[in-house]
Amino acid sequence: MKLINTRCHVCENINFNYLFSTRDYRFNLSNNKFDLYSCKNCNLIKSFPEFNDEEISHYYPKINYYKNSIEKYLKYSGKYNKKFDNYLKIIRKLKDNKNLKILDYGCGDMSLVKYFLNKNKNIFGFEVNDSISKIDGFQKYKEKIFFDFKNIHQSKLKFDIVILNHVFEHISDPNIFIKNIKNIMSEESFIILEIPNSNCLQIKIFKEYAIHLDQPRHRYLYNRDNITKFFLRNKFKKIHINDGFNKFFDYPLSIFKSFKNYIKYSNQNIFYKILISILLPIIFLVYSFKKNSHQSIGAIFSLNNYE
Ligand SMILES: [Zn+2]
């Protein structure tokens, strides 16, 4: 299998290697097969076939893509959210200014918008999925939410912080995205980004059964090097990179979900499956503590020469 007419948006290379095929093991919304290819030069992973926005919308669950059962309670319980609090701490460190304008690009169910408003932050949200207007209490936040990028432009708002919390991997044309986002960022501004990690141990061991491949919704999967390269190419500066801003509690059960899919669906030899099962506690420990084997990458990029 070959990818034709595809240019890597990170390194401009046109040669891609076929990696493996997978299915929607996260939501099981279809039985369709999706092929993953990796750029021969920078290892950016690309999902195929490519869908337009309308087509891909059918691959999102109707009710709520943003939360799932147990993780929902770990992440969103009560008034305290560790990850959002970590974002607040970072923002305070980056820019100590009460009037900062913050944009949560891809704000989903508005959890972050609500949290930051409670902390008296001037935050706005952008979301392509307008079904969030049916969420209870939406009217209260209506003024703060954009559904059309053009409206942000027309508002003349310039943001000091743009948060992309597991959003960038869904974007179909990152080059156009970066051009547009720069237009609405203030002179000394920052992007706080979180994405899945293509170097994750889950993908190395469980391959197509790794839950955060999240096909076909994740159009691209990045590693630390190629995501950095992409932002540097677009005149950003790397300030910080880590294994996610809430490493241990963001998706704590994902490795077990990947393991469950692997045991259930893989055609691997039973002895190999037993071996993996026995080794699972060790795999979990390595996954938890070894740098750059985790599911997520967190990064901060600045648009100026911030020191
Ligand atoms: Zn590339």
Give the total of domains: 1
Strand proportion, as a percent range, falls in: 15-25%
Averaging pLDDT over every residue, what do you get?
91
Distance between the termini: 46 Å
The helix tally amounts to: 11
Q: By helix and strand content, what is the structural category?
A: alpha/beta
- Side by side, the strands of the main sheet go 6-5-4-7-8-11-10
| Gyration radius, in Å | 19 Å
CATH architecture: 3-Layer(aba) Sandwich
Superfamily (CATH H level) name: Vaccinia Virus protein VP39
Helix content range:
25-40%
Report the major sheet: 7 strands, mixed
Named CATH topology: Rossmann fold
Number of strands: 11
Order of helices and strands: EEEHHHEHEHEHEHEHEHEHHE
Small molecules bound in the structure, each named once: zinc ion
Task: Just give the CATH class.
Answer: Alpha Beta
Report the principal-axis shape: globular
Uncertain segments: none
